[in-house]
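Q: I'm writing a short methods note and want an example of a predicted protein-small molecule complex. Could you take the sequence and the SMILES for zinc ion and return the bound structure as tokens? Please keep the output block clean; save any remarks for afterwards.
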Amino acid sequence: MQNIVILTGAGISAESGLKTFRAEDGLWENHPVEEVATPEGFARDPDLVQRFYDDRRAQIRAAKPNAAHEALGRLDREWGGELLLVTQNIDDLHERGGAGRLLHMHGEALSAWCRACDARHSWERTLRDGPPCPACGAAALRPDIVWFGEMPYQMERIFSAIAQADLFVSIGTSGAVYPAAGFVQEAARVGAHTLELNLERSAGSGFFDETRLGPASALVPQWVEQVLAK
Ligand SMILES: [Zn+2]
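A: Understood, no commentary inside the block.
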């Protein structure tokens, strides 16, 4: 076993107290997703959307990585083979848990993207008062988040890692929503073993060779221990 690709989702951040939108009612912290997570919502009410992500940044700064993040950081440090951690989460808890080989397919709350010059900047302050872009000076910064209707980041890199994978692991995500749902199918197609670690059986469970059910903070450290002991 050499090459591992890991996909993480909302379930791993939920145990650190961070919420994402709920598919059941389409709400994210009581806001309809069309309001706060679409380009149309931003065009309609930029002030509301900037305030929403200002709040997310504050929540993220107050949150701490949990045992699952820490275990994946350890795996990244100690695993000699290829490894790519793909997260759907917009927080920086994987980074703070020690993971380096990491990609944020849905963007990052702690990053601002300039629509005038395309530069991206680490960002911890408010975006609400229209601060100038540090690169070009335009007041054109928006949260560096992939909204509904926008293309996730680095899909080519993700699929090329999956094409080389021996093991594909999905953690804390239903695996039922595309494009992420396509990852397990592609991993299976190239002959990788596929493992799901999730709180409950998901609509995507049928795609996996193996499913383990429970909280990520318990399952992930156990699994990492197992992988590194081989
Ligand atoms: Zn700029």
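A: Remarks, as requested: The chain is about 35% helix and 20% strand. The longest helix spans residues 46-62.
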